[in-house]
Write a structure and sequence with these properties.
The complex is a heterodimer of chains A (130) and B (459).
Chain A lengths: L2 E9 L2 H9 L4 H7 L1 E4 L1 H7 L5 E7 L2 E9 L8 E5 L2 H4 L17 E7 L8 H9 L1
Parallel strand pairs in A: 1-5, 2-4
Antiparallel strand pairs in A: 1-6, 3-4, 3-6
Chain B lengths: L2 H17 L4 E6 L11 E5 L6 E5 L3 H9 L10 E3 L5 E3 L2 H14 L3 E5 L5 H14 L2 E4 L6 H10 L6 H7 L2 E5 L3 H4 L3 H6 L15 E5 L12 E3 L6 H12 L7 E2 L2 E2 H13 L2 E6 L1 H4 L5 H14 L4 E6 L6 H12 L5 E2 L6 E2 L6 H6 L5 E5 L3 H4 L2 H9 L2 E4 L5 H5 L2 E3 L10 E4 L5 E4 L12 H18 L1
Parallel strand pairs in B: 6-7, 6-17, 8-9, 8-13, 9-10, 13-14, 17-18, 18-19
Antiparallel strand pairs in B: 1-2, 2-3, 4-5, 4-19, 7-15, 11-12, 15-16, 20-21
Classes of the chains: A alpha/beta (130), B alpha/beta (459).
Chain lengths: 130, 459
């Protein structure tokens, strides 16, 4: 399967905020944050349809999310995962002595993983940590 | 009657229609979600005054926060994790006992969070931290910590949001997306309000957005600088060059030189320029140095016009946490009290560095969710430690903690002081009673503090 390399950033979205306040254990939170937004050109390179589950892998971890068309794009060369446990499974944790992890600008690989499920927040953090 | 007043009246009428003549509308309610701390919400309660029916004037996130406090499936008593992974309900006394022993037994506990609670609860937490020699840190550590370091390095020319609404005619949003993260910021303070010197509202302002994505905020801008991600320092430096009228290379950070000159001229030609900035600069490589130079741009602009710079703070009272610790310990975050006095050294005394290096032996979290918002390597460490999560919601942090203590929502079920992103303190309001028998953050912290003093006195 084709694999693309992309620069990952994360941050807030209104859906992330609303679903977070509605309960992070709910599926709405997974649907809002367990996604990666990609430009159309990236989907072509990936050889996958929109709304396909993909595996995002960095030097620091790996996570399954659903790839969707960029809602606030185009943003050439960038992938966007809203802030939450899915983004934090792969972000660069190095603080370079500032105390601040490098949440923006993590090189990641993306490959289609259509048959793998996107876990909800509690299942994901339990799988990663316990 | 003005259009806004008519709308307000129609809202009130609709509330009365729903709930009859005994309906109660609580006015001037403060929203406990983001650092914008909107103070014009109206909340409609049912006849008994115990149930929230509607929230007016709030953004989608703020309204959800009020309404979710009423959820049927809300936890109302502490839960202790059992060996088989199941949860057992315990009393607040048992929860306070566990927490007190955990803190006293630890050599160097981490006490993290503090941004979604009131200043008075933060103050009790400070006393508790001092008593047990904790490392105290708030959410600035993954948010505007870089900003706090930069402000300590180079100072900050700032203003209140009222000044911005009345005066600012050049507004820059750098690495922030208020349309999503601070949904009412533009309508209350920065773009749309008709102020004393900004009578035409958005028409009297030029809006510049700097973001590598074409965000919903960027779509509204007069000028959008879609820079290459992580090149903020270069672009800010180029704007300083352009402000001075010196020569630039053809492009900087992917932005053509003529656009950079245009932005510099736009900012210089205003009567009052303001730069709002967010995680795009504090999280990218360069960190505090990105902010240093943004502040330097602001300082340079003051040679030509009036200019200010304001961080877009996230949690509604992360600013207050920095204020409280500022006057109690002298530092706004990353405070190590383990030697009996306050030390401050981000990179050493910061939560993520402490966790990754295995330098803390217990984790106490209140008013934040590191389980969702820390890199997963740090969360793994929390999961391995004795841990307590004090939060009204079920969260990834509560899922990996040994004890989850649900508490009343500050700003909904208990009042208390919070600081807006421009360091203006605002007293939040109590709207409804918490579920029967539930404690507030401050009450639970006071119980733990009393018990800690008893244990230490007996030892």
């Amino acid at each position: 399967m084709p694999e693309i390399e992309i620069n990952l950033i994360s941050g807030r979205t209104i859906d992330q905020g609303v679903s977070m306040e509605n309960g992070k254990e709910k599926l709405a939170y997974r649907n809002a944050c367990g996604i990666i937004e990609l430009d159309d050109v990236e989907f072509k390179k990936l050889g996958a349809y929109r709304n396909t589950n993909v595996r995002v892998t960095s030097e620091y971890g790996s996570v399954i999310v659903k790839a969707i068309q960029a809602t606030q794009g185009p943003h050439p060369g960038l992938g966007w995962i809203p802030m939450g446990p899915w983004a934090n499974a792969v972000v660069d944790p190095n603080t370079y002595s500032t105390g601040m992890p490098t949440f923006k600008g993590t090189p990641v690989k993306v490959e289609a993983a259509a048959d793998e499920p996107v876990l909800d927040a509690i299942a994901l953090i339990t799988q990663e940590c316990l | 009657m003005s259009r806004s007043l008519m709308r307000l009246h129609s809202l009130r009428r609709s509330a009365y229609r729903q709930v009859g003549n005994l309906a109660k509308i609580v006015t001037d309610v403060v929203c406990p979600f983001c650092g914008t701390l909107c103070d014009d919400l109206e909340v409609a309660l049912d006849d008994s005054g115990e149930k929230i029916l509607e929230v007016y004037n709030a953004c989608a996130i703020g309204a959800t926060k009020f309404l979710h406090s009423q959820a049927e499936d809300r936890l109302t008593r502490p839960q202790m994790k059992q060996e088989d992974g199941s949860w057992k309900e315990v009393t607040y006394d048992e929860a306070a006992e566990y927490t007190a022993h955990m803190l006293v037994d630890a050599k160097k506990p981490l006490m993290y969070g503090w941004s979604s609670t009131s200043c008075s609860a933060q103050s009790v937490g400070s006393e508790l931290g001092e008593e047990v020699g904790a490392c105290m840190d708030n959410t600035a550590t993954v948010c505007h910590g870089s900003t706090l370091i930069a402000v300590q390095d180079v100072g900050v020319p700032s203003a209140t949001l009222g000044e911005i609404a009345n005066r600012a005619d050049r507004v820059v949003f750098w690495g922030c997306n208020p349309a999503h993260a601070h949904p009412r910021h533009m309508s209350r303070y920065s773009i749309f309000p008709r102020g004393f010197f900004t009578g035409k509202g958005s028409k009297s302002r030029k809006m510049v957005v700097v973001d590598p994505r074409r965000t919903d905020t960027a779509k509204m801008a007069d000028i959008h600088l879609q820079l290459e991600q992580g090149r903020d320092y270069e672009l800010l430096s180029a704007i300083r060059v352009a402000i001075r009228g010196e020569k630039l290379p053809e492009t900087v950070a992917g932005i053509p030189a003529e656009t950079i000159y245009e932005v510099a001229d736009t900012l210089k030609s205003g009567r009052f320029s303001v730069i709002f900035f967010g995680m795009g600069v504090t999280h990218s490589l360069g960190k505090n140095h990105n902010i240093d130079i943004a502040i330097s741009v602001t300082r340079d602009l003051n040679d030509y016009t009036k200019a200010a710079i304001i961080p877009m703070r996230g949690h509604y009272n992360v600013t207050g946490s920095g204020q409280v610790w500022g006057w109690q310990f002298g530092f706004p975050y990353c405070i190590d009290l383990s030697r009996g006095f306050a030390r401050y050294n981000p990179g050493d005394s910061s939560s993520n560095d402490l966790l990754i290096r295995d330098e803390v032996d217990a984790a106490f979290v209140l008013g934040s969710d590191p389980g969702a918002h820390f890199p997963v390597g740090s969360v793994r460490k929390i999961a391995q430690l004795p841990s307590v999560c004090i939060d009204p919601h079920i969260t990834p942090t509560s899922a990996v903690s040994k004890l989850h203590v649900p508490v009343a929502f500050v700003g909904v079920e208990v009042g208390g002081c919070a600081y807006r992103m421009d360091n203006v303190p605002i007293e939040t309001r109590k709207v409804v009673e918490p579920p029967e028998g539930m404690l507030t953050d401050e009450e639970f912290l006071t119980m733990v503090l009393k018990r800690v003093k008893e244990i230490k006195g007996a030892a």
